[in-house]
Design goal:
The complex is a heterodimer. Chain A is an alpha+beta fold. Chain A contains 13 helices and eight strands. Chain A has two domains: 130 residues, Thiolase/Chalcone synthase (Peroxisomal Thiolase, Chain A, domain 1); 215 residues, Thiolase/Chalcone synthase (Peroxisomal Thiolase, Chain A, domain 1, 3-Layer(aba) Sandwich). The mean pLDDT of chain A is 90. By secondary structure, chain B is α+β, with helices and mostly antiparallel strands. In chain B, strand 5 and strand 6 form a beta hairpin. The radius of gyration of chain B is 18 Å and the shape is globular. The relative contact order of chain B is 0.17. The chains are: A alpha+beta, B alpha+beta. Bound molecules: zinc ion (ZN). Zinc ion binds next to loops of chain B.
């Protein structure tokens, strides 16, 4: 098999002063022309990478994030870029670093997540497009719609969402770095009241200022470094760009596409994973991912998490540092760091004995993006 | 101005949908090549990329696909509690909207609803009310009793 890449088609829109046309309109035109030039059809397309350009903006309208940070760090790197995948972004930048290192584009790649949403109060509560006219603000509403569907389709109960929150708090109680150190009882969970029904306060993640970084390098370069190496056993992505108008938007996650594929390629079954680090912006997303990755059957996650199964000492501990629900909102990068600590045997009171494999997920935007990373010793 | 509704910002692709709402008409985009109905709109059909598109009126009837109750106020013009729902229209297109004239505890997934245009800050928004079975029954009963 020859995996050498080549260019199969090109196309572009007119250039110049194009009054009345939007950037997106022009991008669609260019895409159609390039696909036609290649002799392909829309159904053949299964990947999309974009650059929104400076006018459409990345950070403050003009300065890309990597440039702002790189200038502060005094770097003149050989390879750089930012990802805009919401909560799937931390895993995505590690994937990108792995690819860049393996392609020889760089040899030591620093992967950094950081944000300060508390300093810019309310920034997690932004309007969800035109749907804000109906009060669709923040991320809780969207995930509550998915939670309600799960309850309707599978008989999942609010107490079963509560089991996820209680497990997260029990894990966090063993993590001195966690924001929420106190365990949560079912009574406290139920009495805290709804944010967006059926999701209660403890179903929703923390909001935190903070940053986290991971260094990716090559085995050669790492040969004489101090810490035990954490190997990359597999990675992948899948996305669902359907709108809220698409029929099944709230019933499934793109994780169901990339999760099993990444595990297969790594030669692993879900039961082979020792450390499970699932993006947990809301408890419902943990349930949906347990199903999507095959830790339990579709529709059975509610009963699966009962009796402390995903808590400390359970048969499948999930998010041993407490996750977004109880440790801190770390964008997903803290999930990666906890996995690395578990594989190195550095997790102290939380240590899963003999941990050799870890799975980390990222999930973002309006339930649109998903990233998967599998690590090993 | 704080209590102005956070109204939609029509684009060249969504303005015909919102314009129709101002006439109290609910319309969705339909591809004339493959028949795919869709919202919110774009330069081409997202199924086959044809640009041969038309707006098609729909009945305004549908059912509740999912719903949630906001217990927190995110915008001063939309005080909690309020119901946000994903409505499945008869042609299969889904729409995020509000369910109004209905207590939150009465809403069910699968409940039949119909569009009701409500003016907010001078702009008509397509919201949904439960399909009126109870009133019909009431009128029938009253008719019978007067005989
Ligand atoms: Zn079409």
């Amino acid at each position: 098999m020859n995996r050498e890449a080549l260019i199969a088609g090109v196309g572009h829109s007119p250039f110049g002063k194009l009054t009345g046309r939007t950037a997106l309109d022009l991008e669609v035109e260019a895409a159609i022309k390039a696909i036609a030039d290649a002799g392909l059809s829309p159904q053949d397309v299964d990947g999309l990478v974009t650059d929104p350009g400076p006018a459409q903006g990345i950070l403050n309208g003009i300065t890309p994030h990597y440039l702002a940070l790189g200038q502060l760090l005094g770097l003149n790197p050989r390879y750089t870029g930012s990802e805009i995948l919401g909560g799937a972004g931390s895993v995505a930048i590690i994937q990108r670093a792995v690819m860049a290192v393996e392609a020889g584009l760089c040899s030591v790649c620093l992967c950094v997540y950081g944000d300060a949403p508390l300093s810019a109060k309310g920034s997690f509560d932004y309007a969800r497009g035109d749907e804000a006219a109906f009060g669709l603000f923040g991320a809780a509403g969207l995930h509550a719609l998915a939670a309600k569907r799960h309850m309707h389709l599978w008989g999942t109960t609010e107490n079963q969402f509560g089991e996820v929150a209680i497990a997260a708090r029990a894990h966090a109680a063993r993590n001195p770095n966690a924001q929420l150190q106190k365990p949560l009882t079912m009574k406290e969970y139920r009495e805290a009241g709804y944010i967006v029904e059926p999701l209660k306060k403890a179903d929703c993640c923390l909001i935190s200022d903070g940053a986290a970084a991971v260094v990716v390098t090559s085995a050669d370069r790492a040969a004489d470094l101090l810490k035990p190496h954490t190997r990359i056993l597999g990675y992948g992505q899948a996305h669902n760009f359907g709108t809220y108008s698409s029929p099944d938007h709230f019933d499934s996650l793109p994780a169901a596409r990339c999760g099993p594929e990444v595990l297969n390629k790594a030669g692993l079954a879900p039961s082979d994973i020792d450390v499970v680090q699932l993006y947990d912006c809301f408890t419902i997303v943990v349930l949906m991912q347990l199903e999507a990755y095959g830790f339990c059957a579709k529709g059975e996650a509610g009963s699966f998490v009962e009796h402390g199964r995903i808590g400390p000492g359970g048969s499948l501990p999930v998010n041993t540092s407490g996750g977004l629900l109880a440790e801190a909102y770390g964008g997903g990068m803290l999930h990666v760091i906890e996995a690395v600590r578990q594989l190195r045997g550095e997790a102290e009171d939380r240590q899963i004995q003999g941990a050799e494999t870890a799975l980390i997920s990222g999930h973002g935007l309006g339930m649109n993006t998903h990233t998967t990373l599998v690590l090993g010793v | 101005m704080e209590n102005e509704y956070p109204l939609p910002q029509p684009t060249p692709f969504t303005e015909s949908f919102w314009d129709a709402c101002q006439q109290e008409l609910l319309q969705v985009w339909r591809c004339k090549v493959c028949g795919h109905p869709f919202l919110p709109g774009g330069p081409v059909c997202p199924e086959c990329w044809s640009d041969d598109l038309e707006m098609q009126p729909v009945s305004g009837r549908g059912e509740v696909f999912s719903f949630v109750v906001y217990h927190r106020t995110y915008h001063p013009a939309i005080p909690a509690p309020y119901i946000v729902a994903s409505i499945e229209l008869e042609n299969g297109v889904h729409l995020i909207s509000n369910i109004i004239d209905c207590k939150p505890e009465m809403v069910r997934i699968g409940m039949q609803v119909q569009v009701a245009f409500k003016q907010k800050s001078g702009f008509k928004l397509p919201m949904f009310t439960p399909t009126v079975h109870t009133n019909t029954t009431f009128q029938l009963k009253r008719g019978n009793s007067s005989v």
